[in-house]
Hints:
The structure holds 2 protein chains of 2 kinds. By secondary structure, chain A is mainly beta. Chain A is globular, with a radius of gyration of 13 Å. Chain A has strands spanning about 5, 10-15, 20-25, 30-35, 45-50, 65-70, 75-80, 90-95, 105, 110-114. Chain B is mainly β. The interface of A and B includes residues 56, 58, 59, 103 and 106 of A.
Amino acid sequence: GAGVSQSPSNKVTEKGKDVELRCDPISGHTALYWYRQSLGQGLEFLIYFQGNSAPDKSGLPSDRFSAERTGGSVSTLTIQRTQQEDSAVYLCASSYREYTDTQYFGPGTRLTVL
Amino acid sequence: KQEVTQIPAALSVPEGENLVLNCSFTDSAIYNLQWFRQDPGKGLTSLLLIQSSQREQTSGRLNASLDKSSGRSTLYIAASQPGDSATYLCAVRGSEFSGNTPLVFGKGTRLSVIA
């Protein structure tokens, strides 16, 4: 079936504006993850959703970052009052269950904050 | 706090060579280890997943080994091809004994296979 999809593929915004990034996981996958990949840095975990459980938000870098997952499927990552250091590629992944299973990644959204 | 290190950071080899990429991690209490491939401007593709109870996994020309007690994994690529050129990432997931940590990634090894 279709893989993980993300939109938009590229987003350019001005400092201080809010942005929303979308992730459509693989159908039937109960676990969904958001990561951030900054230039010269490794992938950084942001947040994890598993079924109806409370999300693991331990990786969110500040309270300007939040995420929702509606109906156990689509997820939206919101960054409020964007800063230049938020510029990165934001990657979403899903897996059939939780961490025991292979994670399948989307192509990412490249965010540039001017 | 789990840290994952990959050596070398970059590697260039002629086509046809066998090669080994290294990954080390500081906390041996892991649930599993995954190797990924990332092509420029693209997302990650999972190559191999090794559960903590396993010693190795094989897929085609790829073989990944895991020595949990020493905190090391290697990815062996046989008969390398130009199409293998990409960045290879290693990631570990912590076990319930280390707080069920999410995937922690290394910074990757950038591989170039020269025709």
